[in-house]
């Protein structure tokens, strides 16, 4: 369609959007040559984001709502059936209908095992098509869930608009894209740009086909270092990719320049020690130009943590996806343990960075009341008050052990843990608070744990713990 007709369509859409829903059959009467309504629809789809239009199920277009995304987030119970079918279709196309059986099943299981070994030892992975399929089979469901838990933080605080320009750096096989799509309401409008250099692009493209009419996706098959972002993005995502970059902080700093003034840069990483602490290192390296919005809020102005920074959140397990169950059930080699190819844990480290200087916890401790963790050595063997962010779930794996929680205030040089030795109604907030909540702790005993090289703050029946919900 020539530019004159396209501009006539745009002009009519701009006028009608202020009056009533835009019907392509109505517009075609006012366009030179009266092009078919389907051609009108195509132009409106191509220019939908710029025009601020969402396409309805009946084929009409209307302005996207200005209100941010709201409503409760109830978590993720399962990987959706439609996406499971899309993955199985890819597996069938590559290996045939009996893909979990025989030589093909053995080959897939070997690929998954290789991926797990490479991940454990931090080896580089070369993604051919079969490796990308194995990666999707094993990792896509939990990554799909994790990104929703993280982005729901922004939604809960009214910081996730219904009209979003999103840049997904290292988009992989589509976990972040699908998670974002399902988190948003049907009337959201998204201009989604993916950057992915590997053969995962084939899987990513197939998964993007499962998104709806108002999720406008473009894929760039190039590296994060080579891609040149244009304009400002409401959301820049680095999901499970920072540990694969040679200089992740430099890459993040470059992309931070493309974050809108009221936008967010979000980094996710697996919960294991290496990748989670690497995420914190990047966070600390780039915070001169970005504020840490969540979860590791800096409560004390001018302070920055220098501890190891291993902190991660844990969400409920998702249901075993049918394709993972099939692959696991068909394994017959003697080294196989049931559940080896099922990956339903949702555990992740994350950071949300913003250019506007905001923090999710708007609290500044009074130095005359609260002890700063940077000065904890001065308080050993004393009872003190502290203000701290809860940075873990219970870290013990023994039912008889005292519950143990990582905490921080943004000034700590070594790890701090709250140890619950005697629970009461006045200190139960330590256990019930959510990851990232602010805890105001009164009369806690500060001790040094020489074995762990960390401070233990002992919460007993003389301690009071008040919870201040994050974002509240």
Write the layout of secondary structure elements.
Layout: H1 3-16, H2 24-27, H3 37-46, H4 48-51, E1 53-55, E2 61-63, H5 81-95, H6 102-121, H7 129-156, E3 163-169, H8 175-183, E4 189-195, H9 200-208, E5 215-220, E6 233-239, H10 248-256, E7 259-270, H11 273-286, E8 291-294, E9 313-315, H12 322-329, E10 346-354, E11 383-390, E12 404-408, E13 416-420, H13 429-432, E14 438-449, E15 454-459, E16 464-468
Parallel strand pairs: 3-4, 3-6, 4-5, 6-7, 13-15
Antiparallel strand pairs: 1-2, 7-10, 8-10, 9-10, 11-12, 11-14, 12-13, 14-15, 14-16
Helix pairs in contact: 5-7, 6-7, 7-8, 10-11
Could you walk me through the main structural features you see in this protein, from its secondary elements to its overall organization?
It is a single chain. With 472 residues, this protein is α/β, with parallel strands linked by helices. It has three domains: 3-63; 81-354, 3-Layer(aba) Sandwich (Rossmann fold), CATH 3.40.50; 373-468, Beta Barrel (OB fold (Dihydrolipoamide Acetyltransferase, E2P)), CATH 2.40.50. Helix content is 31%, strand content 22%. It is built from 13 helices and 16 strands. The protein has helices at 3-16, 24-27, 37-46, 48-51, 81-95, 102-121, 129-156, 175-183, 200-208, 248-256, 273-286, 322-329, 429-432; strands at 53-55, 61-63, 163-169, 189-195, 215-220, 233-239, 259-270, 291-294, 313-315, 346-354, 383-390, 404-408, 416-420, 438-449, 454-459, 464-468. Strands 3, 4, 5, 6, 7, 8, 9 and 10 form an eight-stranded mixed β-sheet that branches. A hairpin with a 7-residue loop joins strand 12 and strand 13.
